[in-house]
Each structure stands twice: as structure tokens, then as C-alpha cells.
């Protein structure tokens, strides 16, 4: 005969054990997926060459041409901090940032967002499109449509920056005057989940939504 409440405790222990088993199965599944992805990448590199996979375009395996006017910042910090950060560039291209990212699964924001959250999104491989009141309504509409259909992007207005439209990835940035500028597509194609990101593939959902 058990003690009063012993059945409840046993049930709780069984439930906890099952929870731990499910977590272990999930971890094992992730390990298998990661192993498969790494093996596939190694095989692809062996067949086609790492340099071709990462840095070349479709023109005979030659390195992709630089994007005119694109700027780069190496060696950016990646600490999680709370509070406001005084970034040395506008918009910021990386550095220490808030522990919570801004949702960046094709999210279009109609009001300014916090730099500290957006920088965390850049770390995950997102491209951040910002625009001032000098951008035309047609350009804003065109960019909004492009962002909406492109995972790992986000868009928001910004009061001050060097150009009417700026595209920012981790450590990379280019400014343009029009959405029809060919550098818009070039930047998105190259940097959405590009090799510049410290944590490509990390989630773009479940973060800040406004």
C-alpha cells in the first residue's frame, strides 16, 4: 500500500522522464540533421570547390563582382547587452546587441524599430532595409513587396541615414536613391543568409514584433 500522494508523485516522475526522453530524441534528431548538412557541404565543396560555392557568380566560376559603394566593417562585437547602445554607424551594421532579435521573416514595420534588436537580426543572417522620407512612396511600396516575399529580411523607416534607402547586413551596407537600383537585388541576393552572418539560419521569429 503506497503512501498518500505517492501515485501522483510517481505519475509526475514518469511524465518528467518522458519529457527528458523527448528532449533527448529532439537533440539526437538535430545532431543527425547537422551531420547530414555538414557532410553534404563537404561533398559539394569537394565537387565544385569551396571558393566557387561561396564567392562566385554564374559567369564561369569567377568571383562575384563587388557591389559599387558597398562598405564593410570587420571584427564586430557580439555581446548581448541590455539598454541603449551608441553605434558608430547609421544604421548599425553589427556589434553588441539586445538579447532578443527583431522579427525578420519578411517583416515590414511602419514605425522605427530599436537598433539593438535589429542588429541581433543581422547576426541571424537577415538584411535590414531602411528608408527616410526622401524615398518615394512608389519605392517604399516596391521594397515592402520585395521584403514581404523574402524570408530573413525586415524593413523600417528611419529619420536619418546617408541615403534615402539603405540596405544593411552584418558588417555590410550600401545606400541607394531608388528601389530600381540594381544594387538592391544584388545586395539581397548576396547577403540574405550570406557568409557574412555569424549565425546564419538562426530563427527570425519569436522575437520583438513592433
Question: Can you walk me through this structure?
Answer:
It holds the Pfam family DUF3105. Residues 1-31, 191-210 are annotated as: Disordered. InterPro entries: DUF3105 (IPR021454). It comes from Streptomyces roseoviridis. The protein has 5 helices and 6 strands, in the order ααββαβαβββα. The chain has 210 residues and is of the alpha/beta class. It folds into 2 domains: 6-55; 71-191, Glutaredoxin. β5 (165-169) and β6 (172-176) form a beta hairpin. The chain is globular and about 35 Å long. Mean pLDDT is 82; it is low at 1-6 and 33-59.
List the helices and strands and how they pair.
Layout: H1 6-48, H2 50-55, E1 71-72, E2 105-108, H3 115-123, E3 127-131, H4 137-148, E4 153-157, E5 165-169, E6 172-176, H5 182-191
Parallel strand pairs: 2-4, 3-4
Antiparallel strand pairs: 1-6, 3-5, 5-6
Descriptive key words:
alpha/beta; Glutaredoxin; 6-stranded mixed sheet; 5 helices; 6 strands; 38% helix; globular; disordered N terminus
Amino acid at each position: 500500500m503506497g503512501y498518500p500522494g505517492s501515485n501522483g508523485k510517481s505519475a509526475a516522475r514518469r511524465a518528467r522522464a518522458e519529457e527528458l526522453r523527448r528532449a533527448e530524441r529532439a537533440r539526437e534528431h538535430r545532431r543527425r540533421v547537422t551531420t547530414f548538412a555538414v557532410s553534404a557541404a563537404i561533398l559539394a565543396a569537394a565537387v565544385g570547390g569551396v571558393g566557387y560555392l561561396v564567392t562566385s557568380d554564374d559567369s564561369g566560376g569567377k568571383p562575384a563582382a563587388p557591389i559599387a559603394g558597398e562598405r564593410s566593417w570587420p571584427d564586430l562585437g557580439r555581446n548581448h547587452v541590455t539598454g541603449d547602445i551608441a553605434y558608430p554607424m547609421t544604421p548599425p551594421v553589427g556589434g553588441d546587441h539586445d538579447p532578443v532579435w527583431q522579427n525578420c521573416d519578411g517583416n515590414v514595420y511602419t514605425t522605427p524599430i530599436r537598433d539593438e534588436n535589429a542588429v541581433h537580426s543581422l547576426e541571424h543572417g537577415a538584411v535590414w532595409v531602411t528608408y527616410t522620407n526622401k524615398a518615394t512612396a512608389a519605392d517604399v511600396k516596391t521594397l515592402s513587396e520585395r521584403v514581404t516575399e523574402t524570408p530573413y529580411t525586415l524593413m523600417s523607416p528611419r529619420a536619418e541615414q546617408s541615403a534615402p534607402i539603405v540596405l544593411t547586413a552584418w558588417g555590410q551596407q550600401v545606400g541607394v536613391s531608388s528601389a530600381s537600383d540594381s544594387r538592391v537585388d544584388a545586395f539581397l541576393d548576396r547577403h540574405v543568409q550570406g557568409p557574412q552572418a555569424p549565425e546564419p539560419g538562426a530563427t527570425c521569429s519569436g522575437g520583438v514584433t513592433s
